[in-house]
Amino acid sequence: MEVKGNVYNPAEIYIKSIKRRNDVMPEVTGPGTTGGTQAIVTETQTLPIDDLAFIFAIMQTKNLDDQLKTAMKNIQSKQSDLAYARKMLELAQQAKADKNQSGPQGELATFLTKNGVTWSWSSGLKDDELNNKWDTIITSINNIIQNKNSGIELDMLSLQSLMNKRNQALEMASTIMKKAADSKESLIRNL
C-alpha cells in the first residue's frame, strides 16, 4: 500500500497496477496536489472499461472525503461559536443576578452587537425595569443559541448525506471490481 501524507489513496495504487498490466499510466491529480481531486485519463481507449469505472468511483470517493472534511470543520467552528454564545448567556445571567446597572459591557456588548442585538440602557433603573432589560438580552441570547443549534443540526444531516454518498461510491467501486473479477474468472473457466 502507498501512503501519501498519511492518506491512503487506493486510486493511485490501482492506477499503478493498471500501468504494470497495460503499460499505460493515466495522469491523476489528487489530495495534496495543486489540481485538487480530479482524474485526467489519457489514452482511455487502451484502458478496460472496468478499470476506468473503478478509477472514477474511487476519485468520487476522494472528492466526497474532501467535502466531508470541510463539512466537519464547519460544524466544529459552529460548535465553538455555540459554546461562546453559552458563555455570553452565563455572563448576562450573572449580570442580572448581580443587578448590574451599567448594562452589557466589553465582551458581552461586542457579542450582542456582532449578532445584531440592539439595546438601550439608562442609569438608575428600578428593579423591575432592570430585570426586564436583562430578560430581553437573555432571551435574545437564547434565540441566538437556538438558531446556532438548528444550524448545526442541519449541517449534521448534510454530513450524514455526504457519508451515505461516500459509502455508495465505495460500494460501487467494490461491485465493479467484483463483477470484473467474476467476468475474468468465467472467461478463464470457459477456456
Description:
The chain has a two-stranded antiparallel ribbon. It has a two-stranded antiparallel ribbon with strand order 3-4. The protein has 191 residues and is mainly alpha-helical. The protein has helices spanning 10-22, 49-97, 106-114, 127-190; strands at residues 3-4, 7-8, 27-29, 38-40. A hairpin with an 8-residue loop joins strand 3 (27-29) and strand 4.
Topology (SSEs and partners):
Blueprint: E1 3-4, E2 7-8, H1 10-22, E3 27-29, E4 38-40, H2 49-97, H3 106-114, H4 127-190
Antiparallel strand pairs: 1-2, 3-4
Short description:
The protein is mainly alpha-helical. It has four helices and four strands, in the order E-E-H-E-E-H-H-H.
Helix-strand string = EEHEEHHH
- Work out the helicity level: over 70%
Q: What Rg, in angstroms, do the CA atoms define?
A: 28 Å
Range of strand content = 5-15%
How many extended strands?
A: 4
- Structural class of the helices, strands and pairings? mainly alpha
Describe the sheet with the most strands: 2 strands, antiparallel
Tell me the span between the first and last alpha carbons: 33 Å
Report the uncertain regions: 1-8, 17-43
Give the strand order of the largest sheet, numbering strands 1, 2, ... along the chain. 1-2
Oligomer: single chain
Name the shape in a single word.
rod-shaped
**Helical stretch count?**
4
Q: What's the average pLDDT?
A: 80
